[in-house]
What does this fold into?
Amino acid sequence: MSNKKLFISGDEAVAIGTKLSRPNVISAYPITPQTVTVERLSEMVESGELKAEYMHVESEHSAMSAAMGVSAVGARAFTATSSQGLLYMAEGLHYASGGRYPIVMMNANRSLALPWSIYGDQRDSLSLLDSGWIQVYVEDAQEALDMIIQAYKIAENKDVLTPFMINLDGFVLTHTYELVEIPEQEKVDEFLPPFQTPNKMSFEEPKNLAFSTTPADNLEYKYQQNRAMFNSINVINDVDKEFGDKFERYYGGMVQEYRCDDAEVVMLTLGSITGTVRMIVDKLRDEGKKVGLLKIRYMRPFPEKEIIKLAKNVKAIGVVEKDISFGYEGTVFTNVNSALSKIDNAPLSLNFLCGMGGRDVSKSDIYNMFISLFNAVKGEKQKRVQFINMGVETDE
Amino acid sequence: MNNTDIKRITPKNITDKEFFYGHKACAGCGGSIAVRLALKVLGERTFAVLPAGCMSAVGFIFPQMAFVNNAIISTFPGSASMASGVSVGARALGLKDYKTVVFAGDGGTADIGLQALSGAIDRNEDIIYVCYDNEAYMNTGIQKSGLTPFGTKTTTTPAGKNIHGAQSFKKNMFEIMAAHEIAYAATASIGYPQDYIDKINRAKHTKGTSFIHVYASCPTGWGIPTETTVQIAKEAVDSGLFYLAEYQNRKFKLNKNPKSFFSAKDYLLKQARFKHLTDDDINIIEQQRDEKWEYMREHWK
It folds into this structure.
């Protein structure tokens, strides 16, 4: 029996994944390019196909505050945002993770002002890496839909109880249409049982939540939060397998390797650019070059073990990202180098900064990144941090 | 706005049960009286949401939790939206017969929390929002808020030769709430506890959003003896500098309309925060009061 397939956008895939996960309450504020997701969800609530309450909150800050209230009584919460909205709720992000509320949120990766731009890059979510949320970056609409369902399963695990952010590139994923397989509700229900948590207010067992601590107690809470994040690694891998066994789609857990087995040069990616890099890997393989691709799926928890395992067998690693931490380098690059610092004879690494504010990254751009890596392996001096596709020459 | 359809709660039948105790509030804290009385009326099937502020700071210091009923601290700007989430989340789970109440200070209400509160009223969430107004950011050390009255000396509105304390008047929260056509709004004072209890009870039996602005004195911030907390909150009303009113069904009602006022000057000058006021300053305060009362007496029969 073939499963139902729909030709839908990434935003719509998220909405359907959310509906299948049966949230009790959706609290969201519209922001481009997340809007289609919340429009579809409100339509589903209206039609009755989604039995949930839809809260028309007046801001992203309230979207997150409301979601925490929902979670604090043991109900399943969903919200979605992007860019400026994500930063507006930044206080709530730390609050939700500290309170151990397993809220699931879609973030449409979009540039941050100034200058204003509605187009995609990953500076919004990467600037909130330290907010205590699990962060996954998806490559296509199918993965977006599937990850919403997996997200609840991971976030609500009693050893995790940590909120979960699904990132998909603004427009490139949110507004691009693909054929997406829709899981059957019955199978999703088997996979994802209703939310149960000990961390809630109830009249049977009243609680005071979200309290203060003195310096004598605070660190223990932060330690537990960190442990929960590390606990999520096993849960992520288990859930990936369980999901694959049931729905026949495996994503690889923390990372997804492509043609890395005998690779000498490997590109690390985040999000939708992975597809383009995969094509160039095939092209270079056809040319006899030993190249591979490592798609970083989770930025938090960070796939340190997987990167180290890969790095032991390669000569050069490239990190391509739509981000920059001003005054240093790309944030993903910093994280990758931190992992590399833990092994002897680490491979050389180069950072390719591109796609900011939605600028195109072409196949030839990526081809040239690989060439730069090969040149570095040959001993030719390369810039460690390279701005790809700059419109002007620089004298650096 | 008559309470005849609601069983009245009076000193004779109010519960002996306490829902808020063992907290670390200052001696004579008016805010804690407001919270204590409200919870006695609302009962144990109540979720309390408190933003950053005095009552959350003194009530939730791990491991000493001061609320018997369910209670949670929200972000400073997010009390009305978190309470909305609690209320809606509980409804989505099928819970019945419960209330969600916010206890927020004046700054948490009139300043940083106003947007979320406006949104909650717009959605007509089934929540009660109690603003305990001690007329400054007391928890952070007596800084000016949007509800700090004209002339008040705070740590950010010092009383000097050039500027005599706060130069703005209290933001008109009650009427801002009424302008939303909220289901029920009222002002109250811990100096008139029966009136306050009646209003909490009215809010408890109101479907949709209720807002109660309760005047709650602060000996620490106001510079008054702790044993005068209730008396001073009564005098604020008697002097006409605060008023007791209700709003429902697009109608305002003045609950107390004194023929003559207790001396505003006496009320003000017994508090350290107003000691510096000149006769001219007090004239400004009285003039503003009189204009307000003229309006209320004409429009809020």
